[in-house]
Specification:
The complex is a heterodimer of chains A (165) and B (544). With 165 residues, chain A is of the alpha/beta class. Chain A is 32% helix and 22% strand. In chain A, helix 1 packs across helix 4 and helix 3 crosses helix 5. The chains are: A alpha/beta (165), B alpha/beta (544).
Chain lengths: 165, 544
Amino acid sequence: MPQKKVMNVVVAGLGGQGVIKASDILADAAFRAGLDVKKAEIHGMSQRGGSVTSDVRFGEVVLSPMIPPGEADFLLVLEPSEVPVTRPLLAPNGVLIPPDAIPEDRLPNKRSLNVALLGVLSARLEIPEEHFREAIRAALPERLHAVNEAAFRLGRELPLPPPGA
Amino acid sequence: MREGKERRLVSGDEAVAAAARDAGVHLGTGYPGTPSTEILQVFSELGGRAQWAPNEKVALEVGLGAAFGGARALVTMKHVGVNVAADPLFTAAYTGVSGGLVVVSADDPGMASSQNEQDNRHYAVAAGLPLLEPSDSQEAYDLTLQAFDLSERWQIPVLLRMTTRVCHSKSIVTRRPGLLAAKEPHFERDIEKRVMIPAYARPAHLRLRRKLAGIQAFAETGALIVERRGDPALGIVTSGVTARHVQEAAPEASLLELKILHPLPLERIRAFAERVGKCLVIEEGDPYLADALLAAGIPISGKDPAFRFGELNVGRVRRILAGDFSPEPEPPRGKPPQLCEACPYHPVYATLRKLDCIVAGDIGCYTLGVLPPYQGMDTCVAMGASVGVGLGLRHVLPEAQARRVVSLIGDSTFVHSGVSGLIEMVYNPPKTGHVLVVLDNGTTAMTGQQEHPGTGRTLAHEPTQKLSIEGLARALGVDHVDVVDPIPDPGAFEKILRERLSTPKLSVIVARRPCILAAADIRRYEKAAAEKREKACTLVAEAE
């Protein structure tokens, strides 16, 4: 798939929310689509409830694994309190995908918010949907496949938020 | 190539593990430490023989013994672990090896999870060892193989320096072994090479310098240099992940990327510097390269001292290039990590605070007790240092203060290097006595719940002999040894601590309760071990 420009996605949240899992799935989906991919995060302290961000970059050739602050095309945030903290990472015309992009009452399991937000993101990327599904199945144990595929579909089928939301 | 089955998206740590496996490494050993920990775990998952040692010094000695026996050995640790292993490391440079010995030093510029940001390139110079440094996962794979090749060719231990971003970033790797098969381990006596009495060590030092001269000549062939020709007006000498930041920030510049950082291919670098208009050195951490090149009379300019601190990234490299030294924007300040809500150490910290203890602390998750609300630690310096620092305070403080001093250490840290502190405590007891609290949560929690000698399980979670912390303390002659579970009855912990603080005796209190993150896994390992034992008994009974 030709994708000259490097796409920059930051996934943010708190330790234990599935930030790393979401970025692993996204990176794997891009990899399955035949793109060059790099992914970077600091995860020494991630299990202790602190802020975690993970950078995923994909395109024809990716150089640095880290997204320069203010250059993220997409910012996925799993925790409301992390939105203002991480917002400066977003490019001026970048898209924020906040946790409330997913209506709480429609999410079958709160633990799969990360995958539901990936669904929202996937609708805005050129990576074929099938690669996301494969990446989700590869990243999670079989007993979690159904609930996460449902969460992904929920996110993917939501109407896109208006620009600048 | 893209469709190749071996292409995978992996971290630098995973790439080193895969290379070690493909190199037929006989033994991997180390001590857990972010960001190096995953190397041995993945090596074990891939079927390699991997072991946690009690500390980095022992790990290196085990690896060295294996390499004396002609084996390929991989030893992993974080940057500060090299300090612990430095004693055997320096002399291993003299003895050399018969097999292959690669020591991974995982540095942590920016201190994502460390107590300092020391730059271990200096160790290569100080010990006289070759040092290779990858910029991404593919290079982590390739340079691991290259490091074994160098080690065997020159019979010398080789340092592989990684940094947090290389260890933990994922990028695409193709496994391409291409190294000669490992030899079968075999012992050949060579007393003058391996017994470092002064008479044998003097020629060994000369031998080492000859080897390094040979390796430098090899480096000058350019095998471990990547040159990217660009605009001849600006040339940049760089290494590690910084090379990728530089390439992104200055796509038009000429680039000289060094994969070998010691010994340096100085003539190659000199030729590059003379070929370009202006030659900059951009490196993370200390001005290691810049100083070495300037000392060799190579016309380069280094970075502003402000960029010695923390990690580099594309933005900071742009600033270096632009000569922009204005205050840098603060990175987003999110929620700091903290003790887990259900951490068994909460009552311990609450009690230490209530009794107004002076706490000599140590390294692990429990260091997070230093944060509010407890602010329950007064010192934290190095692995195992809580015991010695606590004793030093006790020796000199006025009695009223000395009586409040407590040393606080985790179980894995205690085994790592608290044991020798405990021996000191018994050997040179302070007049007021001393209290050592061992926070025993049954795992190396901070780095992701690794096993250690006190858990009674090996790296792969198989049962082995279990070290008894209280048994060891009793055997050493500590006056009072107590084991308490602080969760069901915090009052009991407080009562014991009060009592022990009030006497001039020596006391060890083991506060034991499994880490809540590890508890389910620990139960599973214990169940598996019990089933295995039962099965073995049945087999024995049947055989009888």
